[in-house]
Q: What sequence folds into this?
């Protein structure tokens, strides 16, 4: 009886994985957006806390952005490795590649965040949203093609 239940469980888990792979294939922007939503939520919470305490600790909104980006990037690689992409490359390789992508994104997104703060009259949360969306697309492309090695022609992506 226990063996039969285990067989049913394995079969149903395999079916769920196959169905999710058909609906939201690994490596796609849709799958990245779902797991990126978790990473962005973590980033947003950290940023909101830092912006709230910034007058007390004497940091700017831009420093809050950079700190939130850095801290949320620490978990983002593993979230994307597990959920968005896969383990086709060694974790040492993907960790170094992800670190490079997130470091470049940290500098670039901080510059665009600060520029939008200075040059526009947009509300700060709208600036946050615009900036995170633009840099999210960049991050997805770099993680997909450079870090995790998806060519766009892989059979298992479709």
A:
């Amino acid at each position: 009886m226990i063996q039969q239940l285990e067989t049913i469980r394995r079969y149903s888990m395999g079916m769920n994985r196959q169905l999710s792979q058909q609906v939201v294939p690994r490596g796609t922007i849709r799958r990245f957006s779902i797991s990126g939503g978790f990473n962005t939520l973590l980033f947003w919470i950290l940023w909101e806390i830092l912006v709230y305490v910034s007058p007390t600790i004497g940091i700017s909104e831009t420093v809050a952005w950079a700190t939130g980006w850095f801290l949320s990037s620490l978990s983002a690689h593993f979230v994307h490795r597990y959920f968005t992409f896969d383990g086709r490359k060694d974790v040492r390789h993907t960790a170094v590649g992800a670190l490079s992508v997130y470091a470049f994104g940290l500098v670039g997104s901080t510059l665009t965040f600060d520029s939008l703060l200075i040059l526009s009259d947009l509300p700060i949360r709208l600036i946050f949203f615009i900036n995170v969306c633009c840099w999210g697309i960049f991050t997805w492309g770099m993680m997909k093609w450079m870090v995790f090695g998806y060519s766009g022609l892989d059979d298992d992506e479709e």
User: Anything to note?
Assistant: The helical segments are 2-23, 29-57, 61-84, 91-119, 124-147.
